[in-house]
Amino acid sequence: MAFRIAPAVVALLIASSAAGAGERDAARTLRRAYDPVVVSTARLVAFPGRRTEQFRLFRFDDGRPVPIRHQFDARDAGGDVIVDGPADFEFDRDDELVFMAADAGDRADPADWPPAWERAMEIEVTDPRPGAGGRAWAYLAWFRLPPPPLAFAPYVTVDPGARRVRSASYDVEYADARNFFTAIRVAGTAGGPGENILRQSRMRGSPTLSLFFKKVTLDFTEQNSIIQLDGVRVGPVRAVRRARLKIDLGALIPDLPGGVAYTYHYRDAYLTPSRVRFSSLLLRALRAFRFENLLEFLPTALPLHFHDATRPDGVEVTAASPQVVQSPEDHEWWVHSSRAGTMLHAFTIPERWREWGVSRGTTLRPAPDASGAVAVGYTLENMTRLKEAGSWELGQASIVLSRPFRPGDEEEPLALMRAPLLIEVRWPEPTPRARSVSPAAG
Questions:
Q1: Distance between CA atoms of residues 47 and 57, nearest Å
Q2: Range of the domain at 37
Q3: Whole-prediction pTM value?
Q4: Is there a single domain that holds both residue 141 and residue 195?
């Protein structure tokens, strides 16, 4: 079995159309707080130039353009983010522009565009959920001479060793040369005290294979995940951590998980898209498969409440009453909520897997070593029901919520994965009525 982490974060619908006069000067109604907006640079080739330092992104507030955070990330021919490249570069059709939907603003009449915008593109972001109806706009402007650099503090920072990642909402630490977390903190600005709540994250897989007329069970854990860090690209909007990953089980079966591992860190969330490959040979040999991905909480993090779709009101977990929950039915999300903060964790699998009977279980149990720690997370169930070989897209997201969980609070963060934002780009022509503004505005 082999996998590689896919670069996609948000599915896009991109179209080009003329701006209607009747819709100009519309107010922002979008309420999505967690979503990044990722626009392929294939949609930007109509600009006169392609040097990233010649662009600025704006929103409109009260009819005035305001610069907002954005970044360009380059991808190579294989689709991998170039983490060791320069901050500015000449983009081609394979790269991407990134900003946060929460930073977009009102719609502007081209008559209000500053004269310095020699060429500009309107980006409309729409919530596709029925009844949501939210929209917001951003404007990408090109300048013949690069304007002065903007002094935006990045939403996410990374320490020089790339083991600690911080934002205004959370702080996580990675193990040295391994692909798991050793600390999670929810910041005070996001409802937590900034204290570490995590002993470590844990992963365990146990495939049973029929090999040479007998069954062989192989076990691997997070300790078997060896990484070589390729680097971290940090911009104003996100930090992209890329590593070469392999599962070290010796030479028994060479076709084991390995490839490129990504984590995309944003202001309030970190995302781990993945692509898992199952060969036909592996599926024929597979007789059983158990997989779990858990967070092991420190005893000092207790009491906490555990929530999922079948327990939206929560299960209280204390040191005196650690609780045990096993739910093999399909669960898309679970939440931990305590005085140390609240986070939602979501896991997406292909719809065809669900049709075949594969499910995402949740589990809650004491740690096996009587330390007082509590393990909470996901299991994959019924993996032997996979019917087709090939590569499959999976996705994980961990999102900081700003208050103790209440039933229904899962809807907005889950929209990040359930209902990706729709994006349209337009090329309205400015009119001679465009007025001048201060150089700082454009």
A1: 14
A2: 2-147+421-431
A3: 0.88
A4: no
Residue 205 and residue 342 in one domain: yes
Regarding beta strands 16-17 and 422-426, do their DSSP bridges make them parallel or antiparallel, or are they unpaired?
Answer: parallel
What would the two tokens of residue 133 be? 């109806």
Give me the long-range contacts of 201-204 (CB less than 8 A, separation at least 24): 201/293, 201/294, 201/295, 201/296, 202/292, 202/293, 202/294, 202/295, 202/296, 202/375, 202/377, 203/291, 203/292, 203/293, 203/294, 204/290, 204/291, 204/292
What 3-state DSSP class applies to 364?
strand
Per-residue pLDDT of the chain (442 residues; tens, 9 = 90+): 333 333 333 333 333 333 444 456 699 999 999 999 999 999 999 999 999 999 999 999 999 999 999 999 999 988 899 999 899 999 999 999 999 999 999 999 998 899 999 899 999 999 999 988 799 999 999 999 999 988 899 999 999 888 999 999 999 999 987 778 999 999 999 999 999 999 999 988 888 888 777 888 888 878 776 777 889 999 999 999 988 766 665 555 544 545 678 899 999 999 998 877 888 888 888 899 888 999 999 999 999 999 999 999 999 998 877 678 888 889 999 999 999 999 999 999 999 999 999 999 999 999 888 788 999 999 999 999 999 988 888 899 999 999 999 999 999 999 999 999 999 999 987 654 444 444 444 4
